[in-house]
Amino acid sequence: MTMSYVSNMQDDSHQTLERLISEGQNILDRSQIERRSLKSSGAESGDSILSEIAGAIVGDAFESPRIGSTTRRISKSYLRDERKKKLLESDDRYFNLANSWISKVYDYLGGVSTVTKTKLQNSHKLLSKFSKIERAVKPETKLKIGISILKQFALRGVVGNKTLETLKSAGLVTGPGGQFEAYNQILEIAARAKGFLIVVDPYPSRETLIVFEKSPHKQPVKFLTYPPQNRRNRAEFEVLAKKMKNDRPEIDIRYAPPKTLHDRFMITETEAWHLGHSIKDFGNKLSAITQMNTTEKKQFENGFSVIWDSAKPV
Description:
By secondary structure, this protein is α+β, with helices and mostly antiparallel strands. It has nine helices and eleven strands. The strands form two sheets. The chain has an eight-stranded mixed sheet with strand order 4-10-9-8-5-6-7-11, sandwiched between helices. Strands 2-1-3 form a three-stranded antiparallel sheet.
């Protein structure tokens, strides 16, 4: 079964990713500021320190050109060594901070996946992409590469693997190539409907009408949709809808007022499902059929009744 993108799926994975990006950027900024500061302070204080060292070594003899020149060379060498020592200490400190951050990122990526409307990348692929930072030697370079990769992941959208597993166990998760599997799941929901069947889908099609055929006979079916925008498609749909209503009078199809529908739903007396795509498009793109809880079902039914009462029969 192919994993899926779910537009309304929420967990704390994205917030954690944003924190990691911010933390990595903070380490990088501090490292760069400290290096610039060390180089700048070394240049500014060089002459004064040089004079102090020279005076301490030779006193008044510093005025001698030969002794002064030798002393300056010794002093400059000392300053270079001191500055190099501080830079190395700074590098070591930020190297450790960078490695600690990288370790956190690896742990995080081991538990998430990125999802878009057409593609999913699991933890293995994310870890493989992030491991590109190992080619770099300097901590600053590693941080820059790592932050850039994480920002790409953030743009795609991340979700915890546990959330995906929960979604998988609660309903059907499908993607490109899974059209038959997805449509079959929808037909099964209709076939086992108890009490009634409500379908809300803004984009009607022949496939939608076939779903109603699978519902138990003499059991009320309500389909709320919009009229097809294409005149020919609308005429064809309405002919098929009227034929179906002649055979199955319990099927009631209505056009909702403009701008009152958005998502897709299948509701029965005992079940409530949210469809990530219109029935006619299921399986063409990454999507999911997710089960709604009792509270969500009740809220939907209340809102549906209001729109249904103002809808126009087909």
